[in-house]
């Protein structure tokens, strides 16, 4: 059974810093990996999707990488802003399925 | 982009009553929808997969007779929490994959509080 772990559980940084969020998974037979953002009491917003054949994806200040062999993904946020404060979730899809397996998330606080 | 709505966004009910939550895909058809539950400070846990025109598939440990799912059309799935108890209080989120886009669109969630 796939297990997804996100470290750290919470992170607080001053505005302007670059930061990295980590995600690890136990089964490398994945179809794709997604990073989501969740604001308190809200649904999820998809940030980046990486196919299993890809190594990274970029969108604005966000860069996500995927290393299937080591079972790891990172989400890099450049020049963090207070508006980036949210919980970031990593989720995987297995081959032939839409089902997502989520990590517990990293709660990010960017201090002005 | 594709939009998924949920109704209601908030519901408070007495123990023993039933609550229905709707999940709609607004600008695309979804033959499959997923229902997740999220307890405080926990991640989303898949409860069941809703299939249009057929029975839902439930994850291990989820009581199908308690969490009734109906996917009557290509744009609507409903989750009914029957005889709700305080331990059912949670944040329920649905999602729908847009065919061919390999991603899922999530609803805004429904917060259920059972007194």
Write up this protein:
- The complex is a heterodimer of chains A (112) and B (115).
- Chain A is mainly β and 112 residues long.
- Helices cover 0% and strands 60% of the residues of chain A.
- Chain A is built from no helices and eleven strands.
- In chain A, the strands form two sheets. In chain A, strands 2, 4, 5, 9, 10 and 11 form a six-stranded mixed β-sheet that branches. A five-stranded antiparallel β-sheet of chain A has the order 1-3-8-7-6, with no helix packed on it.
- Chain B has strands spanning 4-7, 10-13, 19-25, 32-38, 45-51, 57-58, 67-73, 76-81, 90-97, 104-106, 110-114.
- Chain B has no helices and eleven strands.
- Chain B is mainly beta and 115 residues long.
- Chain B is globular.
- In chain B, a hairpin with a 2-residue loop joins β7 and β8 (76-81).
- In chain B, strands 2, 4, 5, 6, 9, 10 and 11 form a seven-stranded mixed β-sheet that branches.
- The model of chain B has no long low-confidence stretch (mean pLDDT 91).
- Chain A binds chain B through residues 4, 31-32, 34, 36, 41-46, 49, 51, 89, 91, 98-105, and chain B through 6, 32, 34, 41-46, 49, 91, 93, 95, 97, 102-109, 111.
């Amino acid at each position: 059974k796939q297990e997804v772990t996100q470290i750290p559980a919470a992170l607080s940084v001053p505005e302007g810093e670059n930061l990295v969020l980590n995600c690890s998974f136990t089964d490398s037979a994945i179809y794709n990996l997604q990073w989501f953002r969740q604001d308190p009491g809200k649904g999820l917003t998809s940030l980046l999707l990486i196919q299993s054949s890809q190594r990274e994806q970029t969108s604005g200040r966000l860069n996500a990488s995927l290393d299937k062999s080591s079972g790891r993904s990172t989400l890099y946020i450049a020049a963090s802003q207070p508006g980036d404060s949210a919980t970031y979730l990593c989720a995987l899809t297995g081959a032939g399925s839409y089902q997502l397996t989520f990590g517990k998330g990293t709660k990010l606080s960017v201090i002005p | 982009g594709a939009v998924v709505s949920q109704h209601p966004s908030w519901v408070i009910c007495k123990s023993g009553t039933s609550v229905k939550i709707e999940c709609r895909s607004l600008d695309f058809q979804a033959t499959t929808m997923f229902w997740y539950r999220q307890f405080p400070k926990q991640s989303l846990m898949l409860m069941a997969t809703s299939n249009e025109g057929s029975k839902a598939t439930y994850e291990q440990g989820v009581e199908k007779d308690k969490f009734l799912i109906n996917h009557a059309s290509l744009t609507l799935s409903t989750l009914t929490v029957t005889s709700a108890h305080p331990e059912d209080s949670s944040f329920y989120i649905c999602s729908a994959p847009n065919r061919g886009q390999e991603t899922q669109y999530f609803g805004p969630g429904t917060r259920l509080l059972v007194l």
